[in-house]
Specification:
The protein is 45% helix and 17% strand. By secondary structure, it is of the alpha/beta class. Bound molecules: pyridoxal-5'-phosphate.
Length: 495
């Protein structure tokens, strides 16, 4: 299948080329030229299959440059045994909802679902393209992508990873996960700014001819492991099909019945994968987009006006502290009839004026498919406490934002009887302090890891081994740089 750029449809790539390039030349994002279509029968046929087999069925139509066997090998390496659950994306019944737990991978957040496989897709793509240079992967992270990329790419031949995270903008566990990362091809620096600054800084480096040349002189080409890379997006489409297949297998839905997905959203990557699943034929009624106090998406969905000119808040769900949601560009492309002209204009307006407005007919299409809501820290904490008391189920603060919006949607839409799947994006242990506070056990500790121990005592939920080891590991990465010095920092640390 051919992919094309959202800002210039004459720029095309195969999937392998898109994995390598990360972002399209001149700044657009690669999208499929058309969506592969799955009939209800095709979807029903997924029910008895394993996650790996479902992944092969969903991803294969997009990747024409790999044989089925090659893709199958990548899938097996990624999902075969690095998850601590029976299947990589288990679906659990909690109250009246179904929770899709996407945090059983090595870094305890949903980013593993894509970043466990991306290195394998990328190395195979480099072989196919006969690429000799080292691939330098630049990552901006709001907390979880960084660690997942470091873990996925550590010691992968022919690659090097450089992660930027906002100084003081990630949780203690997230910081330690990155600062203690081992591997001879991994690098980490804190940026004196927020996530949007880090993301904008990385995007600028991709478009900076002097920086690109300096990398070339060092025998390197640039790529991205952020969700702007099509290789991040595609593996995420799989778990929406898989969740539906599980509901079919359990008899909760009949083939063709519609379901709702509730997704805690920051960069719009996770929920965009659900939109892709819907375009491919998955029977989805509403995509419920849940934001924290950084509620630019909730406003956009209700008004069609995207306005990033607002205060940035640090919240207890840091991986959603984002005002410029990169992957929205891919939705905009679909909303306006897959036209590159308006997308370029909107993205240009966002960059130069900080806002843009889509036409009423585009907003209408969006509002039919999406429902947007937002919850502040207090409401998220209350949701954690409520669900713990009622169902003895622990959620992390990101998932709690989604749960809160799910409950509000249900309350406001009594006529919608579609089963709801709430997407759970992080292990509660990754945010132990906040979770313990929220369940109001009467005990709190300054030390994050004492909170973890207490949570384990209360819930009996197994603690991921990688997290329990963190406090005893040496700090290996301590670089800090200003927003303007990101490029120089990369060059200084990776001569
Ligand atoms: C990244 C992340 C999100 C947001 O996902 P997007 O794809 O950026 O919308 C939500 N929760 C957690 C725990 C995350 O790591």
């Amino acid at each position: 299948m051919v992919l094309l750029s959202t800002r210039d449809k004459t720029i095309t790539a195969t999937a392998a080329q898109a994995f390598i390039q990360g972002i399209a030349p001149s700044g657009g994002l690669f999208v499929p030229a058309e969506y592969p279509s799955f009939s209800i029968e095709d979807i029903a046929a997924l029910a008895p299959l394993s996650y790996q087999q479902r992944a092969l069925a969903v991803m294969a139509p997009f990747i024409s440059d790999f044989s089925r066997e090659e893709l199958s090998n990548c899938i097996e390496k990624a999902y075969g045994n690095s998850f601590d659950s029976a299947t990589p994306a288990p679906l659990r019944k909690v109250g009246n909802a179904h929770v899709l737990e996407l945090w059983h991978g090595p870094t305890s957040a949903f980013k593993d679902m894509a970043l466990q496989i991306l290195p394998h897709l990328l190395t195979l793509a480099c072989e196919k393209q006969n690429k000799k240079e080292e691939t330098m992967i630049l990552v901006a992270t709001s907390g979880d992508t960084g660690k997942a990329a470091l873990e996925g790419f550590a010691d992968v031949q022919g690659t090097r990873v450089f992660v930027f995270y906002p100084k003081g903008g990630v949780s203690r566990a997230q910081y330690l996960q990155m600062a203690t990362q081992k591997g001879n091809n991994v690098h980490v620096a804190a940026v004196e700014g927020n996530f949007d600054d880090a993301q904008t800084g990385v995007k600028k480096l991709f478009a900076d001819p002097a920086f690109i040349q300096a990398q070339k002189d060092r025998g390197r080409t640039l790529s991205s492991a952020n969700s702007i890379n099509f290789g991040r997006l595609l593996p995420q489409v799989v778990y929406y099909f898989s969740a539906y297949a599980d509901l079919l297998a359990q008899g909760t839905v009949k083939a063709g019945d519609k379901v709702n997905f509730v997704v805690p959203t920051g960069n719009f990557g996770n929920i965009l994968a659900a939109w892709y699943a819907k375009q491919m034929g998955l029977p989805i009624h509403k995509l419920i987009c849940a934001s924290n106090r950084n509620n630019v998406l909730a406003d956009f969905i209700s008004t069609g006006n995207y306005d990033a000119r607002r205060s940035f808040y640090k919240t207890t769900s840091p991986s959603m502290d984002i005002l410029i949601s990169s992957n929205l560009e891919r939705l905009l492309f679909d909303l306006c009839g897959r036209d590159d002209q308006p997308v370029s204009q909107w993205m240009n307006a966002l960059q130069t004026q900080g806002h843009y407005q889509v036409a009423p007919e585009h907003a209408k299409v969006m509002q039919e498919a999406f429902y947007g809501g937002w919850a502040d820290d207090q409401a998220a904490a209350a949701a954690i406490g409520r669900l713990w008391r009622k169902e003895r189920y622990l959620m992390d603060p990101h998932t709690a934002v989604a749960w809160e919006i799910y409950e509000r949607y249900e309350a406001g839409n009594p006529d919608d009887h579609c089963p709801a799947v709430v997407v759970s994006t992080a292990s509660p242990y990754k945010f132990s302090g906040e979770v313990l506070k929220a369940i109001d056990d009467g005990k709190t500790f300054d030390d994050e890891f004492q909170c973890t121990a207490r949570l384990q005592e209360l819930s009996g939920l197994p603690m991921p081994k990688a997290l329990s080891e963190l406090p005893s590991l040496p700090i290996l990465h301590d670089a800090v740089c200003s927003i303007d010095a990101m490029g120089d920092t990369v060059l200084a640390i990776t001569p």
